[in-house]
Automatic annotation (TrEMBL):
One Pfam family hit: ABC_tran
Molecular function terms from GO: ABC-type amino acid transporter activity; ATP binding; ATP hydrolysis activity
Protein name: Amino acid ABC transporter ATP-binding protein
PROSITE patterns (alphabetical): ABC_TRANSPORTER_1, ABC_TRANSPORTER_2
Keyword DNA-binding on entry: no
Keywords: ATP-binding, Nucleotide-binding, Transport
């Protein structure tokens, strides 16, 4: 479903991603973890070309994302992206935020888009918030609207860039529960996260990054109990003891 081959990315002389290779099969869930500055967010943003790459290739469902011949706007309709900050339109209601792209980009009938939008918001526990504006919602609720907005485009892949990092601690579980529900549907997902328990619980593979490189890829049980690299052991000793 997602194939990343020999990807390199630099900002000037600073190497942000170096020789990245990763294969994510359909319905798999991968977590990207690692210290700040490891390149996790940059990597996930290259998957839908929010960041260009200097070398390599990224293929999503058979489409070469960084090929100049690719219609990237069309390709992005297949790739849902949830940001750290919610990026909702403040002047639109929750339902309008969810339906605006299907109506305007996919030319979906308004009634059909609203029906689907209400179903998605209800699925994410927001059945009473259709007419609420972002300013009337908590951070966790806003992020769940953002997830519904991404799902409204019927993506084949969902990418989450630290979806809980802007939330107060008590709101984090709201968003993690939403992602758990999505996992049960068989959605292919890559999640950049600092929530180690969550990564261990729902992910098929843990991708540990440091210094712009993939240091280790392993199933959660193996990675958290017996990482194979000293770099990963050092990272886990700090994050699991605090």
């Amino acid at each position: 479903m997602i194939s990343i081959t020999n990807v390199h990315k630099a900002f000037g002389n600073h190497k942000v991603l170096e020789n990245i290779n990763l294969e994510v099969s359909k319905s798999q869930i991968f977590a990207l973890i690692g210290p700040s500055g490891a390149g996790k967010s940059t990597l996930i943003r290259t998957i839908n070309a929010l960041e260009p790459i200097n070398e390599g290739e990224i293929i999503v469902d058979g489409i070469s994302i960084h090929d100049k011949k690719t219609n990237i706007n069309a390709a992005r309709t297949e790739i849902g992206f949830v940001f750290q900050s919610f990026n909702l339109y403040p002047f639109l209601t929750a339902l309008q935020n969810v339906t605006i792209a299907p109506i305007n980009v996919k030319k979906m009938d308004k009634a059909k888009a609203e029906k689907k939008g209400k179903e998605l918001l209800s699925m994410l526990g927001l059945g009473s918030k259709f007419d609420s504006y972002p300013s009337q919602l908590s951070g966790g609720q806003q992020q769940r609207v953002a997830i519904a907005r991404a799902l409204a485009m019927d993506p084949k892949v969902m990418l989450f860039d630290e979806p809980t990092s802007a939330l107060d601690p008590e709101m984090i579980n709201e968003v993690l529960d939403a992602i758990r529900s999505l996992a049960k549907t068989g959605m292919t997902m890559i999640v950049v996260t600092h929530e180690m328990g969550f990564a261990k619980e729902i992910c098929d593979q843990i991708v540990f990054m440091a210094d712009g490189k993939i240091v280790e890829v392993a199933p959660p049980d193996k990675f958290f109990s017996n990482p194979s690299t000293e770099r990963a052991k050092g990272f886990l000793s700090k994050v699991l003891n605090h």
